[in-house]
Amino acid sequence: MARKKSEMTPEIIAEHGLSDSEYEIILDRLGREPNLNELGIFSVMWSEHCSYKSSRRHLAKFLTTGDRVIQGPGENAGVIDIDDGDAIIFKMESHNHPSYIEPYQGAATGVGGIMRDVFTMGARPIALMNALRFGEPTHWKTKQLVSGVVAGIGGYGNCVGVPTVGGETNFHKGYNGNILVNAMCVGLARADNVFYSAAKGVGNPIFYVGSKTGRDGIHGATMASAEFDDDSDEKRPTVQVGDPFTEKLLIEACLELMETDAIIAIQDMGAAGLTSSSIEMADKGGVGIELNLDKVPQREPDMTAYEMMLSESQERMLMVIQPGKEKLAFDVFEKWELDVAQIGKTTDTGRLVLKHNRKKVCDIPIAPLADDAPNYDRPHVKPEPRPVLDAADIHETQDYNDALLRIMTSPNIASKRWIWEQYDRHVMSDTVDSSQSGGDAAIVRIHGTNKAVAITTDCTPRYVEADPYEGGKQCVAETWRNLTCVGADPIAITDCLNFGNPERPEIMGQFVGAIEGMNEACHAFDYPVVSGNVSLYNETNGQAIPPTPAVGGVGLIPDLHKFATLKGAQTGDTLILIGDTTGWLGASIYLAEILSREDGAPPPVNLSVEKLNGDYVRKLIRNRRVNAVHDLSDGGLAVAACEMAFGSGVGMALSAPPSGKRHGWLFGEDQARYLLAVEKNSVNPVISTAKAKGISATIVGTVGGNRIQAADAFDVSLDKLLAANEAWLPNLMAGDA
Amino acid sequence: MQTAVIRFPASNCDRDAAVALEKVTGRKPLIVWHRETELPAGVGFVVMPGGFSYGDYLRSGAIAARSPIVQDIKAKSERGLAVAGFCNGFQILTEAGMLPGALMRNTNLKFVCRPERLKVETADSRFTKTYTAKSEVTFPVAHHDGNYFADKDTLARVEKGGQVLFRYLNNPNGSLNDIAGIVNEAGNVFGMMPHPERAIDPMHGGTDGINLFKSILETI
Fold this sequence. Notes:
The complex is a heterodimer of chains A (737) and B (220). Chain A is of the alpha+beta class and 737 residues long. Chain B has a single domain, classed as Class I glutamine amidotransferase (GATase) domain (Rossmann fold, 3-Layer(aba) Sandwich). Helix content of chain B is 22%, strand content 26%. Chain B has helices spanning 14-25, 68-77, 88-95, 152-160, 210-218; strands spanning 2-7, 30-33, 43-48, 82-86, 102-104, 112-120, 136-143, 147-149, 164-168, 179-183, 189-192. The longest helix of chain B has 12 residues, at 14-25. The chains are: A alpha+beta (737), B alpha/beta (220). At the A-B interface, helix 8 and helix 10 of A face helix 1 and strand 6 of B.
């Protein structure tokens, strides 16, 4: 390459999000100034989104190994063993910034991207989940965002034909300027046919497959690594546009080719598109890559090398093909009417060389892009611990009927039917249980077998905000508890760590605290992290979101004759509460909805008690000792009983508290608790076995009738409460259609 | 009985249909690619599966209806071949002119997925003969364009001819006369928006759909 006079002004370097010290490293490694293409490549590879420069050293603390782990973090998705030669491949990922700017396409492409991460590894996607956080319901933008995000998720997943089986939706003013859209995909593969991204060999052909490359999404990864301000709408052109039809064809074509031995390595083009896919493949395989950009299928004329390398056009894959299998690959992709081109080859130079219009437009060593990526130890401070609130000091409602109604129609507790009825939950015909039942975890059968995976996503941001460490523990513990509730053995988690600006020590303190808490729970449950994603800079005009480490848990139900849901409670059953109740109201739903307070320390999570209680509940399910199971979380015992009553279609009567005030008993959010509906003749054995194991088990009521009652507190019609719970979201969204 | 499921680009209930057919016939159906020009010999019953053929671009089912294989199926149906289309399959059959009417966008403009109660309008048809007339069944629906429409004369003819086999008890999409499923005049081509193929398993959606497959397969 000819030496030129300096083109690199400080402005250009700053526009690429590179600091002076980062630029110095580039100069040193190249021994010269980069050209614009090269600068663009360093810029995206070293962006927060791609390099994890603020988070890497902390993520390294996570437990990532276990008996069932086939592949932990570092590949497109995590892989776990579910026996019989079957593997589950899963990951959760954020698409927050694009979804705020353009909700339909942002959410749709989030779903498309996470599916590609999973089928890239050889898995057929079998389930989708999503964890959504919106601003306060009354905020002017909220309705439009809910409507667009939900339509986008449905529009993509429904078309591709993968059931969206569950998730969670929160509303809080902390997300007014920065919503969160986290999508999770679970796929099924054969354990001996998992595909990885490391390129191998020299002179092997590199294939490009899928949609043509356009100018959409250029610098999306850089956008995802910066804060928002009032001009963020101007970033709309950086949002990608999804085509689920092409995605469906890509899935079928890739899975068909994966049945042969044609593919050496495969990587989807996600954030930073062709740049990050080619560099990751080369770096992992220790080879070089040479691409001829003239061969790249292009949607628009006169695209520059810079644009092609940084485009985030969707539904594209890059693969290294076994020499001699080129025709086989062409035939499969042409059968599925996909654009396909051989655009380059692997080399032994360890360099990324790009040619365009017969000129060499980039020639850089690959190792520094990965090895020398910045890795910052950002300063972090622990938040001031909040005081523990004593329930006795917290105002007790004088009208429990009203309090129950207000809580059951509050944004975070109200039915989300309006959302999930827009998702196809049944396609593939293996959905045993989904959002439909309001249950703790979705249950998806492994096709043609009698086993199933259980899937859940959870996070309680108000706990993490109150105490990142305890809140982090709680996120992991709640997924473990929810998987347990359906009778599954929890196996592993994926996470989506959504936080504010890591350059602020208090935000970094939240991040570090949450990771440490999560990790302690992972160790306590032998429940490793196998994949995940970090989304930082979730701030608008300096206002950070509540810290939101969303966790997706996956477990195995070995025998579908032995599982539980919250739907099975029968008239005459006894309600048994597993776990201790202190009446913890700090950072609770009761405090927020009834008293408009968000203070207090969150409930602590005793991990050994969690394990003891959960293992016992799972054993009761396996021994068919229970008709229905539900965990206690937001809103405590009262909300759990209502939800079980809704699911089972029968009333519940709760007894008076054994001690203490009624509000702590009914709405307290102590952890490690489960509500069981048990047949009369099983009550004594369930309680006596619990006592023998040192587990707290208390009779707290009975099942029957058509009312929801609590002694000396509330007494309301089940039908009316259910109707109110169902009406909240449709009322909010009325007029949207 | 040899059956077949047609696979279009972005069909996504092809496997669901295949599982249902195998469950009822004990034999795997043939999966026939849309570019084939002729059905394999011996096929007695064809299912057009649900999905988003060609991404629903242009209009749902419009492009698939022009596939080579559909021309052969249409010709053979005119000589008596039994054909059923579910969801996108129903849309393809109306677009191909094999069933009267059209499926428009749901009146609330949103995709809807839920178990839906239906009334079996008549047991006097090849597709419903093993049901009890006026009985209630539950099939899942999952569609964006399920709003059945036909002009006044066509609708009158369909009603008069007893071609309406299923009606919604709680119309989810604005369909005229609550129509959920219809058969052609000859009685051998049937389409419905709900998914009977997703209602063949007590673990998933119930078993109300089995009789639909039993009915038609008994008559072939």
